[in-house]
Design a protein that fits this description.
Radius of gyration: 23 Å
Largest sheet: 5 strands, parallel
CATH architecture of the largest domain: 3-Layer(aba) Sandwich
Distance between the termini: 48 Å
Helix content: 40-55%
Strand content: 5-15%
CATH superfamily of the largest domain: P-loop containing nucleotide triphosphate hydrolases
Number of domains: 3
CATH class of the largest domain: Alpha Beta
């Protein structure tokens, strides 16, 4: 029995033959790595920045000549937690590569000696860093960077949702990290994130420590025609077909957001039998099912915002792209409380990343949330 692989992969690393486009962005990122540049990689959520990094790290020239590490700091809330994540990543993705690298790791991270142990079943040393072990954060951070400096290959370290460090309560976190990174001659960094406004301020404002310290790569939606060809090809390769209108419906509904499109196409490919055609009607059915699957999560998320914030969010959703949201006419047309309440609400919605704002124009950040709100009305 021949097993047909679903080419629209939504979990784990994506093999090169199933990776859609990003030729220009991947070339630029690899060029920056090979020229020892730090990079700021900015894209909306679920647009594929982590998959792009995976794709580039898996190239033989990168894999064979560098140690590659990836850390996601979205859930961190302090410098201690940052060190916990970074230390664990350095251990799992670098120190465990060889006995020599582990010995060097153990010898260098002396301030975290309580985190080391031994697994008698596996007969191997262990490293389990806990927040309580980090008693001198800046010193532990210095040791981690000292270890990276001693690695026998250059390290490329991708830190996802890097803008999170601006929320830490400790003072001068940006300056502390900038100093460590600047002094580290054996590594380059990819600062990835989804909050464009914050990252632009961090790297483009001359008042901030990371000013002009990295090259900027902006990851936008894959062009519509490119994605259409990609989908058609893989349906054909799987002895199936899909209508052009079906692909365009998915693309337009989710505004080109890669993960959502891939998820819907994954389900479409799964449901369409060999030698059959995926229609626009089927994509609409699967999209509706996907919205329902996320209903509980989205309701819970909405429960954490105030009524005023929710009212403004619904108003922005109704407009699609909302302009002059603090004007008397906007407030009146959408039955909002007052202009001052809108000013307060928009600030919070931007902080929560529920909306994006650029040149006084506002949109809902997540097209799935927008679709859910439309269904609710």
């Amino acid at each position: 029995m021949t097993v047909t692989i679903n080419p629209f992969i939504v979990a784990g690393k994506i093999p090169a033959k199933y990776f859609c486009d990003r030729k220009e962005e991947s070339k630029r990122l690899i060029d920056c790595i090979e020229n020892q540049e730090n990079v700021v990689l900015i894209s909306p959520r679920r647009m594929g920045k982590s998959k792009l990094i995976d794709y580039c790290f898996d190239k033989s020239d990168i894999r064979n000549n560098y140690y590659t590490l990836q850390a996601d700091i979205l859930q961190t809330t302090s410098l201690q937690e940052f060190i916990q994540v970074l230390g664990s990543v350095v251990y799992k993705q670098l120190a465990r590569r060889s006995e020599q690298l582990f010995r060097l790791f153990a010898a260098t991270l002396r301030s975290l000696s309580a985190s080391f142990g031994f697994d008698p079943i596996q007969n191997t040393p262990t490293f389990d860093i806990k927040l309580g072990d980090i008693t001198a954060p800046e010193y532990s951070l210095e040791e981690i960077f000292n270890y990276i400096e001693k690695a026998d290959k250059r390290c490329i370290i991708a830190i996802d949702e890097f803008q999170q460090i601006t929320n830490y309560p400790e003072k001068n976190v940006e300056a502390i990290l900038r100093t460590r990174i600047q002094r580290c001659s054996n590594a380059n960094f990819i600062f990835a994130g989804s909050r464009r406004r914050i990252l632009n301020e961090m790297f483009l404002s001359n008042k901030r420590p990371f000013y002009q310290s990295a090259s900027l790569i902006q990851l936008n939606a894959i062009p519509k025609e490119t994605y259409l060809k990609f989908v058609k090809k893989h349906f054909t390769d799987g002895q199936k077909d899909i209508d052009k209108e079906a692909v365009l419906n998915v693309y337009n509904t989710f505004e080109g957001v890669t993960y959502y499109m891939q998820r819907i196409m994954h389900d479409c490919f799964m449901e369409v039998p060999s030698h059959e055609v995926c229609t626009e009607t089927l994509t609409k059915k699967i999209i509706q099912r996907f919205v329902q699957e996320n209903d509980t999560r989205l309701r819970e998320m909405m429960s954490f915002i105030s009524e005023q914030q929710k009212a403004l969010l619904y108003a922005i959703c109704k407009e699609g792209t909302a302009r002059q949201i603090t004007s008397a006419s906007f407030v009146r047309n959408h039955n909002l409380r007052s202009q001052s309440s809108v000013q307060s609400a928009v600030k919070r919605l931007l902080e929560y990343d529920l909306i994006t704002g650029q040149e006084h124009q506002y949109r809902i950040s997540d097209p799935l949330l927008s679709l859910w709100i439309q269904n609710e009305r």
